[in-house]
Amino acid sequence: xxxxxxxxxxxxxxxxxKLLELLETQYKMIMSKDVFGLEGLxxxxxxxxxxIAQDEVKRRNIIGEESIIEIVNKSDNQELIKSYxxxxxxxxxxxxxxxxxxxxxxxxxxxxxKILSVINPSREIKTYNSYGNLSR
Length: 136
Fold this sequence. Notes:
two-stranded antiparallel ribbon; flagellum; FlgN-like_sf; 79% helix; mainly alpha
């Protein structure tokens, strides 16, 4: 069971590293405003996410209800401990990069919406309310 778990964790770590590379590419495309490149990257990111999820299902089938942390702590297998620590580091990097990309995308969307509202302002007739303020 331990050897199978080690292989599975290493496989999942490889998939996470591929996802990290894709997220780094996504970051570069966001910064260069390559919209069409971003659109093409979506399928690759989804495919990588599916592989990671499949590995996770296999891992849960192997260990059952027991926590992976408990298994690693009980085990004296240095290779398992190293693999687990490696995947934790990779996962933290992926989470950080994903959050960074999400924030950048939201900023770009807000910026684009503001530019669009300047270029094409609201055509509604503006009236004053009882307080003397413009209402829409």
